[in-house]
Specification:
The complex is a heterodimer of chains A (249) and B (434). Chain A is built from nine helices and twelve strands. Chain A is of the alpha/beta class and 249 residues long. Chain A has a single domain, classed as 3-Layer(aba) Sandwich (Rossmann fold). In chain A, the strands form three sheets. In chain A, strands 6-9-10-3-11-12 form a six-stranded mixed sheet, sandwiched between helices. A four-stranded antiparallel sheet of chain A has the order 2-1-4-5, with helices on one face. In chain A, strand 4 and strand 5 form a beta hairpin. The longest helix of chain A is centred in the middle third of the chain and has 15 residues. With 434 residues, chain B is α/β, with parallel strands linked by helices. Chain B is built from ten helices and 19 strands. In chain B, strand 1 and strand 2 form a beta hairpin. In chain B, helix 8 crosses helix 9 and helix 9 packs antiparallel against helix 10. Chain B is globular, with a radius of gyration of 21 Å. Chain B starts with a helix and ends with a helix. Classes of the chains: A alpha/beta (249), B alpha/beta (434). Chain A: InterPro entries: AAA+_ATPase, ABC_transporter-like_ATP-bd, ABC_transporter-like_CS, FeS-cluster_ATPase_SufC, P-loop_NTPase. Chain A: It comes from Methylosinus trichosporium (strain ATCC 35070 / NCIMB 11131 / UNIQEM 75 / OB3b). Chain A: Pfam families: ABC_tran. Chain A: Keywords: ATP-binding, Nucleotide-binding.
């Protein structure tokens, strides 16, 4: 379970998150919707530990432990996973080399034994085939020259190999056509489990047709403005974010 | 007052004059004399010489280490399947070399023997390519050359085994060495030549090595210049000269692992139509390393292709230099040239000087160049960290990827892997704070 309590975050002088509260239980898929520039990506970066954000108040608890003091790799080893809006291209680093380094770094961090190559390969082969990822693609440098859909699938492959407790999907639908969106969503749905929570960040209701949320939160001006069930997303699709942006202006 | 200061010989220049007197009687008298006079006029290069602007040799070479007698060496194990020719402390050592293993079609002699006999073919071949002729360090080498190897590969010979010229420093004393090697590759022949600079123990050596390739029509040469670690006090100068005839191909990787002052200079001339040249380079620098690669690629014939890809990784207080000049002569139409130098700065105190240049005197050519200097990319780093890699490991993976993209082009798997291992080992030493 992840609990975000009264989170205040600034970048330099600019306040981005202003007392945000949010709880995502194990097994729950929570969607955050909101207009541009409202701090959705900031929230995902702060949870996963990116540098450059000043947390001035509040805490982020993963199963009761405040993770805000941890390095990004320590949070990852504890089960935080961020699927990036724009997965980064890394020339010169073969995808397979990277996957193995990531899996084993997390295992080491948890005091588990590293996976040997044959076991690792077996695991990757199984996970890749489920996502329709060709093994030849894994010999190529990470994300270099991959299409938008391939990059997202690669992120979901990483998620399935790393088996996080809590997955954040940051605008996973951006840059995807309908077919790619379906494949990626199926990948995410296959990873839904009673022990794993998800936070799905999106502008559009469309993604939520594929990844059905349990709860929907409207975020604006640095905090959660309204919480409801899946019907809230449909309502937003009709009325837009006007009511939330205009408020208290 | 200023004029006098310029004209005055430095202590090192005076000492070099003494060394020249000692080498005078060792063959090639006319070539030595002319080269010495040229050098004596020019003196050791300073910042005022454009090609040496970032490496002031006159300031670096304060005194000259003696030529001295070669030390005792134990030759390290060779990589599998290589034929090794050992040049230790400036002297070719047939006793330590795999002379008997040289394949048919490859003829070997020592440079000292060839010079002593005034071998006219060798002397002709030693005549400098036009574009290296103005370099004082190459001239100094011709004046003082002690020894080296002369390899002649018969036309249409396919030499399967890699031939390694091992430039070994025994490390028992700070001595000077001037070696010159010559590889004449006959028409249609194929060969792989590696030159390796290895120090058995670090020492403040002063080495000046020249390796000249004359590549016949349709011949293919793969080359590696492997410059291993050395003492901070060492000064090593490597001049590579290449002349490629019609449809000849030359592919080269320079791998520089720091060690005091290293200067690589490459003078390549595409002399025949459809010749192709590929020069790659990786430099891994830390501490007070200073590594300079300065190259001139001359397109003297139409329809030739040249590619240069250089990457420098700079840590500590190291300094990197890349100066690349592509010259397209009048009439060298349909030239296809591309030059790229990228540097990765890992420390606030590291410096990179990047200077690519094009000089084009033909109108139907495609030439491009690019140079970048930067730090590790924050987005890439965070991506790796968010997947569970600790920061130092994430950095190491990115650095390995940066340098590895160049090493990846090495055709032989075992050799390629050995360079990846060298990159990782350099990164390991960096990790240990060395």
């Amino acid at each position: 379970m992840i609990e975000i309590k009264n989170l205040h975050v600034s970048i330099g002088e600019r306040k981005i998150l202003d007392g945000l509260n949010l709880t995502v239980k194990d097994g729950e898929v929570a969607a955050i919707m909101g207009p541009n520039g409202t701090g959705k990506s900031t929230l995902s970066y702060v949870i996963s530990g990116r540098e450059g954000y000043d947390v001035t108040e509040g805490e982020v608890l993963l199963d009761g432990e405040n993770i805000l003091g941890l390095e990004p790799h320590e949070r990852a080893a504890k089960g935080v996973f961020l699927a990036f809006q724009y997965p980064v291209e890394i020339p010169g680093v073969a995808t397979m080399t990277f996957l193995k380094a990531a899996v084993n770094a997390q295992r080491r961090s948890r005091g588990e034994e590293e996976l040997q190559t044959p076991d690792f390969m077996k695991m990757v082969r199984e996970a890749s085939s489920k996502l329709g990822i060709n093994m030849d693609m894994l010999k190529r440098p990470l994300n270099v020259g991959f299409s938008g859909g391939e990059k997202k699938r690669m992120d979901i492959l990483q998620m399935s190999l790393l088996e996080p407790k809590f997955g954040i999907l940051d605008e996973t639908d951006s840059g995807l056509d309908i077919d790619a969106l379906r494949i990626v969503s199926e990948g995410v749905n296959a990873l839904r489990s009673p022990s794993r929570g998800f936070l799905v960040i999106t502008h559009y209701q469309r993604l939520l047709d594929y990844i059905k949320p349990d709860t929907v939160h409207v975020m604006a001006k640095g905090k959660i403005q309204k919480t409801g069930g899946p019907e809230l997303a449909l309502e937003l699709e009709k009325s837009g974010y006007r009511d939330y942006v205009g408020e208290a202006a | 007052m200023t004029v006098q200061a310029i004209d005055k010989k430095s202590e090192a220049e005076t000492a070099l004059a003494g060394a020249f007197e000692a080498m005078k009687g060792k063959g090639a008298a006319a070539l030595r004399q002319a080269s010495w006079e040229f050098f004596a006029r020019k003196g050791l290069p300073t910042r005022r010489v454009e090609a040496w602007h970032y490496t002031d040799l006159r300031a670096a070479l304060r005194s000259v280490a003696p030529l001295g007698a070669p030390g005792t060496v134990a030759v390290p194990a060779a990589a599998d399947g290589r034929v090794r020719l050992v040049v230790a402390d400036g002297a070719f050592r047939p006793d330590l070399s795999d002379v008997a293993a040289l394949p048919a079609g490859v003829e070997l002699s020592s440079l000292a023997d060839a010079l002593a006999k005034d071998d006219s073919a060798v002397l002709t071949a030693l005549g400098l390519p036009e574009n290296a002729g103005a370099d004082a360090v190459v001239a100094l080498n011709a004046a003082l050359m002690q020894d080296g190897v002369v390899l002649r590969i018969a036309p249409a010979t396919e030499v399967a085994k890699t031939i390694e010229i091992l430039l070994l420093s025994s490390g028992d004393a700070a001595r000077s060495a001037f070696t010159r090697s010559l590889v004449v590759v006959g028409d249609g022949a194929k060969a792989k030549i590696v030159e390796t600079s290895v120090a058995l123990a670090p020492a403040g050596v002063q080495e000046n090595h020249v390796l000249a390739f004359s590549i016949g029509a349709g011949a293919e040469v793969e080359h590696i210049a492997d410059i291993g670690p050395q003492s901070e006090a060492a000064i090593r100068l490597f001049s590579l000269m290449v002349t490629a005839q019609t449809k000849a191909s030359f592919k080269s990787l320079g791998f520089v692992e720091g060690g005091g002052l290293v200067r690589r200079q490459i003078f390549a001339r595409l002399a025949g139509e459809q010749a192709s040249l590929s020069l790659d380079g990786v430099a891994l620098l830390g501490g007070k390393d200073h590594a300079d690669t300065t190259l001139v690629v001359e397109h003297a014939a139409p329809h030739c292709q040249s590619r240069e890809r250089f990457r420098s990784v700079l840590d500590g207080q190291s300094t990197g230099v890349f100066q690349g000049k592509v010259v397209v002569r009048p009439g060298a139409q349909k030239t296809d040239g591309s030059m790229q130098s990228r540097a990765l700065l890992l420390s606030e105190n590291a410096t990179m000087n990047n200077k690519p240049e094009l000089e084009i005197f033909a109108d139907d050519v495609v030439c491009g160049h690019g140079a970048t200097c930067g730090r590790l990319d924050a987005d890439q780093l965070f991506y790796l960290e968010a997947r569970g890699l600790p920061k130092r490991e994430a950095e190491a993976l990115l650095i390995e990827g940066f340098a590895g993209e160049i090493v990846d082009a090495v055709s032989e798997e075992a050799t390629r892997e050995s360079y990846f291992a060298r990159i990782r080992s350099w990164l390991g030493r960096r990790e240990d704070g060395k």
